[in-house]
Design goal:
The chain is α+β, with helices and mostly antiparallel strands. It has helices at 2-22, 35-52, 97-110, 142-146, 172-177, 196-210, 214-223, 268-271, 277-288, 294-300, 303-309, 389-403, 405-410, and strands spanning 57-64, 67-78, 83-84, 90-94, 232-233, 248-251, 254-257, 273-276, 314-316, 329-332, 337-341, 344-353, 356-363, 368-374, 376-379. The strands form 3 sheets. The protein has a 9-stranded antiparallel sheet, with helices on both faces. Strands 4-8-5 form a 3-stranded antiparallel sheet. The longest helix has 21 residues, at 2-22. It is globular. 40% of the residues are buried.
Length: 422
Amino acid sequence: MIHRKLLGIIFSLVSIALIFSFKPGIAEVRKYADFEKAMEKFRVFYTDALKENGVVGSSFMFIHDNQVIAKEFYGLANIEQNRKVDEDSIYHWASITKTFTGIAIMQLRDRGLLNLDDPIIKYIPELKDVYNPHGQMTEITLRHLLSHSAGFRGPTWPWKDKPWQPHEPLHWEQLVAMFPYTEILFKPGAKFSYSNLGIIFLGRVIELLTTDDYEVYIDKNIFKPLEMYRSYFDTTPYHLLKYKCQSYFLQDGKLTPAIPDVNTGITVSNGGLNAPFGDMVKYFNFLMGNPEKQEIFDQILKRSSLEEMFQPQLEIKDLDPDSRGENRRDAMGLTFFIEDNYGLHFIGHSGGQNAFVTHFYLNPDLRAAYIIGFNTLAVPAERGKKPDTRALDREIKDYLFKNVFPVFLKKKISFTEEGRSG
């Protein structure tokens, strides 16, 4: 009888703990009277917008002061399996991989293995064969590559024109063979121009200097120290298949499954990352900084070097007229985008590949961030029409910038107010 009563008490305590752990923000936002109201309105906006744009599945998390204070999961991770999106669902993060590549380069810089102003040709002499009408190849530096200002084209492999061809080139030698057919499009450092190709050269530098494959280096030097144990590149490990999101293309009213586990080949340092939201929260907390874990974080990359990556290298002009926001100004840091919008300052990056669309924004001053993922790329029949996942992504960003982040501006809680040092 006593044993049964004890089990009942334990069950009740566990149930209460689960209720409170899954209700967003109760402990952390008790001093923010407006936060839950803002999130209630956002949940309606978010759900309605996902339905309107035909999104199959989506995840969202809002982080403040290293705590997830709100999270939403919508729809299906896999239609064929009737499997719902949940906290364990694994998304493909595509170009957000570039920020890991940037951090790895900064690690090697801090260890004395390279200088950001070294010419890339010092490490990849084959680039001498690239046609450069704007000067010498020795003028293009690692810093130019990190800030998308080197003058290289945007796509890695513009020659793909058949569905049966590989998603990306699989071997380094394929890129080298095309260097004589590659042109520098403008004087290095003159302007911002997003380049997947340039980031791949940085991935090559990492492999040459460390003798590790890129994937191995990132796993040893970022994933494991941050305890991102379910993060990986390209092919999903068998034990994680039950969590992997299937992605879908939506066009002309037709939903088509994308190729599962697309092989990013030689472009892995540019866009090969897969991970659940829980692992990505650990990464964003590293970006945010945490006094309680800063000793561990500094072993990955010291705070001053990370914040160096958040500093503008050059202004981004010619913004998309559909995404101007309010008094918006953009700049490029070292693989991180910098956006001042709605009177607030953000660091961010997006990802889009194989019908996955992902994004994150961090406000360092407010110690607040959000991450979002969609497993559906809806392409509109014409500009300004729906469904349109990329337009949806922008609308959600504007909504959060305008209606949710300002709550923390009004009622910030410092470390000292919470009984912490710093």
